[in-house]
Every structure is written in structure tokens, then in C-alpha cells.
Amino acid sequence: MKLTFKTKDKLHVVSADEILICEVVGNYSRLVLNDKKIIIHIPLKRLMLLLPNDTFFRCHSSFIINLNKVSEFNLSTNKVLINNKIIVPVSLRCRQNLFKTLINILH
User: Fold this and answer.
1) How distant, in Å, are the alpha carbons of 20, 51, 56, 58, 79 from that of 26?
2) In angstroms, what CA-CA distances link 105 with 36, 44, 67, 99?
């Protein structure tokens, strides 16, 4: 799935699979891709509606993660490791649902 995002001076065409995480940055969202970061003027709530819901999960009020990029979920610290390089917090409210979702993906 391809998504199009407008920044101040560019139009970015991004494959959903390239997105590792999305995070809140003030009134903006930062998309962290395999090879770059893009700041867009779309709140996470709206961004979540644009992303495929079977692949992306809002694990915290400030973060959306790509479930296909999860390397590890540390249940004692409530953090996920994305692509073996990015650590993202998981809220207590989302912890159980994320755990169940990851288990379902594996089976």
C-alpha cells in the first residue's frame, strides 16, 4: 500500500511497509522510515485511520508501531524493540492488547 504525505516543500510517496514507527512531535507527526524521517502536519489519531489497521498498532498516546517490524516486546519494561534499533514505550492501557495481537500474528 502506497501513501502520499505532503511536507512543507515536498510530496512523499511512501510504502506502508517502509514505516517503522510514527511519533508525536508537538502538533506534527514524525514518520520514521527505514532510511529517513519525515515530519508531517497530520495528528496521530488521523494518521492511524490512513494506515492499514492489520499492520499498525497505537501502543502509546505518542506512538504508532508497525507490527511487522517488532523484534521484541519486553513485558517487564513495557517497551518494544523495532527493527532491533528503536525502543518504543507501551502504555499500560495498551499492553495486554498488544500482547494478544502479537501472539495472533505469530499463529
Assistant:
1) 19, 20, 21, 17, 22
2) 27, 23, 9, 10
Instruction: Give the chain's largest Cα–Cα span.
Output: 43
Q: How many residues does the chain have?
A: 107
The domains of the chain, with CATH numbers, are: 2-106 (2.40.50.1020)
What pTM, to 2 d.p., does this model score?
A: 0.93
Nine cell digits for residue 85? 534499533
28-33 sheet: strands from edge to edge: 37-40, 28-33, 19-25, 63-66, 56-60
Segment 25-82, tens digit of pLDDT: 988 999 999 999 999 999 999 999 999 999 999 999 999 999 999 999 999 999 999 9
